[in-house]
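Listing S7. Sequence submitted for prediction.
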Amino acid sequence: MSRRHLLLALVLGLPGTVLAGEVPAVDAAQNLGRMLLGLGVVIAIVFALAWVARRASVLRFLGAAGGGPIAVVGQLSLGARERLLLVEVDGQRMLLGVVPGAITRLDIAGAGADAGADFAARLGAAQRSRS
């Protein structure tokens, strides 16, 4: 390295290897390996967070069904987006019709074995009358 380059490096505070044109060797395979490892870690974190979110929603659903005042007793799919729900709210059973954009109460029955049988009989009669 000439004296002029050395003096310029000292004034500018640059390391001598940069001025001399010496560039450290780059290992492409090592850089590619690090990049793929980092990408794998990020993808694993995304899947782990999705699993935790799904588990949390399942646990929330089970907690609400087990001890809350509202419970879905049964459901029947009528089409791609239509269904009947049998819901129990504070000891009363309700039959709800669910379609996109609307929920309609179709029938109400009290809780208990007799009320459930009476409700089933009324539901069967309503189905036969519409057929």
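Caption to Listing S7: primary sequence and predicted structure tokens for the chain studied. Strands lie at 70-77, 83-89, 92-99, 102-110. The mean pLDDT is 76.
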